[in-house]
Design goal:
The structure is a single chain. By secondary structure, the chain is of the alpha/beta class. The protein has one domain: Rossmann fold. 39% of the residues lie in helices and 12% in strands. The strands form two sheets. It has an eight-stranded mixed beta sheet with strand order 3-2-1-4-5-6-7-8, with helices on both faces. Strands 9-10 form a two-stranded parallel ribbon. α6 runs parallel beside α7 and α7 crosses α12. It is globular and about 50 Å long. It starts with a helix and ends with a helix.
Amino acid sequence: MAAVHQKPLETGFAAKSEPSDILAGIDLTGKNAIVTGGYSGIGVETVRALKNAGAHVHVPARDVARARETLADILPPEQVSEMDLANIKTVNQFVEDFSSGHSWLDILITNAGVMACPEQRTAQGWEWQFGVNHVGHFVLGVGLMDLMAKANGARLVTLSSLAHRMSGIRFDDIHFTRDPYEKWTAYGQSKTAQSLFAIGVNARMQERGIEAFSVHPGGIFTPLQRHLPNQEMSALGWTDETGAPSERAAKLFKTPAQGATTSLWCATSPMLSGKGGVYCEDCDIATLVSDDDNGVSGVRGWAVDEGAADKLWDATERLLAKA
């Protein structure tokens, strides 16, 4: 059970450990991996590190041309394929195509996401951040589970965030059809959903050899902030009035490579064997904190609640049944 294991291990790694530290001595030769969002921000560094460790890495991309250009020095073009998380038909097509060309899948990292964007709806009418960050990845992950069960100990890593603290799952109004849309609440809900999805997968698939973990990668300047004007980032304490990183951000924020390390650790570390479902940060299992905790580390209970994970799984299946 996730909550039982939600305690730091004192791994010896640090918030700003590098991918080479995490993967030292780990050989991924013969392993198949998929990284969504693998052509931007920490996704590129995740792909690079997995490839350098010997893995065969595939990147599904909404913008295939840009992805192939960005990854030209890392992956051959045939390892980048079309997929749009907001378009479930393309997600199902990617699953079908990948499954027809591969006999197993060892690592799935659901790294892609959108953050604090203006109100938008998917074709199904779902709130955009929940639809992209959670539902699209749910379809992808569930669709690939049989392939992952054929690997020798597969792992799913979902990208959650410290922003999970902004909202649990709004089960009575997930898509803001009743209440006015609030971008940060919507983002927080979608990041809680990513944590709960890991718990749901782990509970259903651990007997088939699949473990799942969620990750807060840390504060990093990446294209994820593209919807935020500098005035807002400055108010958050991330930048100064010129747009340069604030003194606080310069001290605390990670490089994109450092931001990839907790995902890499969760995908590969033997320290986590038997501890599936936990929420991790800074290359360790995070501390469980109270729901009114105002710190900048740790996970609130609603993001690792097994009952909420089951409820979200059922709610997502109902959404998809109507799609």
